[in-house]
Amino acid sequence: MLHLVFQSPIEQAVLQRVDPGDVVIFLENAVLRILQNGTLESVLLELINNNRLCVLLEDIVVRGIAIDELVSGVDVIDYDEFVELTVHNPVIQSWT
């Protein structure tokens, strides 16, 4: 399953619904919550063990976030990779 997280702040209940093997893409203002030393860092680091966590490059650039500010292990993707993930994951859940 592909989870599209637009929500900011991100509720931990949303992250608890991510099953092992799922892919999560943080979009828009949700990218502000996946920074190192943030309140969700420990939860995100646990998720990274069994899931792919991604952020859209354009969303961090427009918000002035450097890649090295993100929680370690979060993949930075472009629009082409975003589309590819939607093709490979026919079930998509949006969290707004």
Low-pLDDT runs: none
- Biggest sheet overview: 5 strands, parallel
Give the helix level as a range of percent: 25-40%
Got a strand count? 5
**Strand order, largest beta sheet:** 4-3-2-1-5
Rough shape? globular
The whole-angstrom Rg is: 12 Å
Distance between the termini: 17 Å
Strand content: 15-25%
Structural class: alpha/beta
Mean of residue pLDDT? 95
- Following the backbone from N to C, one meets helices and strands in this order, namely EHEHEHEHE
Please report the number of helical segments. 4
Name its key features.
single chain; 4 helices; 21% strand; 30% helix; five-stranded parallel β-sheet; 5 strands
How would you portray this structure in words?
It is a single chain. By secondary structure, the chain is α/β, with parallel strands linked by helices. Helix content is 30%, strand content 21%. The protein is built from four helices and five strands, in the order βαβαβαβαβ. It has helices at residues 12-16, 41-48, 57-62, 79-88; strands at residues 2-5, 23-26, 52-56, 75-77, 92-95. Strands 4-3-2-1-5 form a five-stranded parallel beta sheet. Strand 1, helix 1 (12-16) and strand 2 form a beta-alpha-beta unit. It is globular, with a radius of gyration of 12 Å. The model has no long low-confidence stretch (mean pLDDT 95).
